[in-house]
Amino acid sequence: MTNISVTVDGVRYDDDVEPRTLLVQYLRERLGKVGTVVGCDTSNCGACTVLLDGRGVKSCSLLAAQSDGHVVTTVEGLVPTGEDGALHPVQRAFHEQHALQCGFCTPGMMMAACDLLADNPDPSDEEIREGLEGNLCRCTGYQNIVRAVSAAAAELRSARGAAPSTPEGVASA
Amino acid sequence: MSVVEEHRPEVGNARLRKEDAHLVTGQTNWTDNITPPGTLHIAILRSPMAHARITDIDLGPARDRPGVVAVFSGRDVADEQGTLPCAWPVTEDMVHPDHPALAVDEVRFAGEAVAVVVARDTASAVDALEAIEVDYDPLPVVLDMEAAVADGSPLVHADKGTNSSFTWVFDSAEAGTGGSVDEALGDAEVTVSRRFLQQRLIPSFMEPRSVVVDPTGGQFTMWSATQIPHILRLMLALTTNTPEHKLRVVAPDVGGGFGGKLQVTPEEVITLVAAKRLHKPVKYTETRSDSLLTAHHGRDQIQQLDLAARRDGTITGLKVRLLANMGAYLGLVTPGVPLLGAFMFNAIYKMPAYRFECTGVFTNTAWTDAYRGAGRPEATFAIERMMDELAAELGMDPMEVRRRNWIAHEEFPFTTVAGLTYDSGNYEAATDKAMELFGYDALRREQAERRERGDPVQLGLGISTYTEMCGLAPSRVLGSLSYGAGGWETASLHMLPSGKVEVVTGSSAHGQGHETAWSQIVADQLGVPFEDVEVLHGDTRVSAKGMDTYGSRSLTVGGTAVIAACGKVIDKARKVAAHMLECAEDDLEFADGSFRVKGSPGSEKSIQEIALATFAAHDLPDGVEASLDSDATFDPENFSFPHGTHLCATEVDTETGMVKIRSYVSVDDVGHVVNPLIVDGQVHGGLAQGIGQALFENAVYDSDGNLLTGTFVDYTVPSPADLPAFTTARTETPATTNPLGVKGVGEAGTIASTPAVVNAVVDALRPMGVNDVPMPCSPHRVWQAIQDANGGASS
Ligand code: FES
Ligand code: FES
């Protein structure tokens, strides 16, 4: 067992974990953060993507122990708790652009989009497609996902300068 | 026509989906999120061999591993597990081998379940698999369909004496729907013959399958990532000897299906059997590798087509011979899948003679079954490729050949040579719109220029003028095809005392947006706010009956049942309103959610007031029961026939074989549209899967029968960077067979797009002597096709 201290969606946890426990297993099975999902066993689908200190990582390819001392944000923490019904601009854009059907890829896709927009606040459609290459969706054909990321980028750009409404570790622009 | 039907503020609106709120915030209820207290976890040992006798299994050492609660093999549960169902015996003498969830004496494909460990946690269960010792005695393997039906082939099921499951024939001369195809071929001015391979695909829903069974309280509750909770419940009751009324099946949030979750799976049976034996909740969630290996595959046909035509391009006959790979066993509708294509090879074209013959073949591979389109993509691919080949043979423009043969707008309703009656369609309108959006003539000019200057990057234009039959299905038609069940759908409506509305549908959504679309329909029918409607589905305790979601049926059949249920509520409410307003029922009109006395403004009762009055029941008219509810079923009289024109421009690098889709235009006619946002989404996703078949996806076995494409590294589901932006548009020719005038849309994009892309690839290379490129048209295959054509030219 390894002791870890990790902040997930704004809450600090001190836990003993088995060395082989994956971050995604820790999130789902220990913390009940079941909004983050597992779509493959070869780090190809991106369904498990979360932010580690604000950067996108596939939580199935990281050990829980490696998150020790870091800040993890999952889809459940995109909006600070207490803001009931509030949506992050990326969540809102996915809803408004119909960028999800079954919704299974959606948490990972949105977290990957946050990562992409942190690097490139004004991506072209081409850049969005390349930036999300590690995330698979079987339902949407990606057309509306590209539109949603583009719309979210525009909203985040225009909101820049205003007080940040995102929790620690979440890229807002 | 009543006022209600004319007043349609919701239907047609691009309403944002109700489903999204929980999906974008991670407040989801996937099956794998469900773990009742005390749940035990399953790991499954799978056969490493494609064909072998199991001579011995030693489970003992696994039982001693930490955390292990139980270990069993097929022999231990042979009686309890029954045999997995096939609900579609397509011929009376169909060879239908037993299909055990856990192999008993023999394994017949690599990945078949052999033994099960149940443990306190998944890791312990997986660890203990290593301790199980299985002795296999290898048997000869047959993978190729033509080899399997040749004399002397090794047999997948030795006791059956054949690898052929059935041969099913439709002949227009015998059916009286047309003439003799052999005569047509004999008399033809031109014949075109081609052999196409429909490669094997894997549905690849993003949510791996998962199942939980809780036996607590004398009732078995199964949560499963399934498309078909109702069919699953019935089939499990019939095959595992579980009383149907003691079994509740719930499909919670389900992450895509595409036909891949239209199945009764070994894992569902195994989990149920384990829960029964151990009296504890039991859970199994597959890995992606397990999923690719064992969740049923799709397509996999060898198609031989012979087309007869006159020199002016008029088709005079079509003969189709298929070998369809069943895999090692028959799944729920495996044999029926190629037959759904039998009625679609003639497509939108008038043909005087047609013959279809299909043999279902067993091989030592994972079994096949429905995958988005199921039989119709295969048929559409073949005929649309043939139309291009006929055009090339005649030196005509491929669109012109199609125009000369398609059913003209004024000829509907039209009974085809395959015996179906297409109620409606307007191929001219869809084609004109698509040609304009695409810029067909300009692209043809650019193509000529590139050819002229010998550009290494050639331009190809691909056409697919498709139709398909969906909205499964008229029960009597399914009966005539020997399908085991009907094709109706149910809906129940509950007006709650507070005026809110609950709608229960027998269809079972897994991404399609039923909650939104059904709410739009009910809002219009009852004149209630969209927000006041709650749509319930996917739980046999809430909706006892239903036929679930597949075959693009939910809206045309299930949506129509919802309308019927609304109609019954309105009929009852009218009686109560007349009583409350002291008038005759005929004096009332219903609009915007209220009954009004005609010619007497001010006297009205809203449907919500009536709901409350029927709940209180203090003063109901004689013979009217308390409460305002209804049940309805709808059985369609015909399929629905969406159609459209898809055009694809590809740039093909003749030096590297790289194919780039430059533009893709799809104009689809799905009749009236309830929610354009959802319809566009269905088309986009359908296109992605059809393009996936054309360019990227291929499930491949090695010569021993091991799946080589067992991860997403090798089975290449298209990524965002692989796909182009699509231009989508619609024409609206309403279906005449349902009150909404709607047609199915779930499969159309997949059915239409594959041939459009491959036609474009072949068109780019045709001057080089290429007249086919096998799918998927990878750079290597394209390059190889060019080399082969060059070799052919020089020899
Ligand atoms: S679960 Fe597929 S990449 Fe992590
Ligand atoms: S929405 Fe279903 S996989 Fe992306």
Commentary on this structure:
The complex is a heterodimer of chains A (173) and B (795). Chain A is α+β, with helices and mostly antiparallel strands and 173 residues long. Chain A has helices at 23-30, 89-96, 106-119, 125-131, 143-159, and strands at residues 2-8, 11-17, 49-52, 55-58, 71-73. Chain A has a 5-stranded mixed β-sheet, covered by helices on one side. In chain A, 58% of the residues are buried. The model of chain B is unreliable at 1-7 (pLDDT under 50). Chain B is globular and about 90 Å long. Chain B folds into 3 domains: 20-27 and 488-634, 2-Layer Sandwich (Aldehyde Oxidoreductase, domain 4), CATH 3.30.365; 34-139 and 206-256 and 261-294, Aldehyde oxidase/xanthine dehydrogenase, a/b hammerhead (Aldehyde Oxidoreductase, domain 3); 298-472 and 638-790, Aldehyde Oxidoreductase, domain 4 (2-Layer Sandwich). The N and C termini of chain B lie far apart (71 Å). Chain B is of the alpha+beta class. Chain B has a 7-stranded mixed β-sheet, with helices on both faces. At the A-B interface, α2, α3, α4 and α5 of A face α2 and α21 of B. The structure holds FE2/S2 (inorganic) cluster (FES) (2 copies). Residues 38-40, 43-48, 58, 60 of chain A line the site of one FE2/S2 (inorganic) cluster.
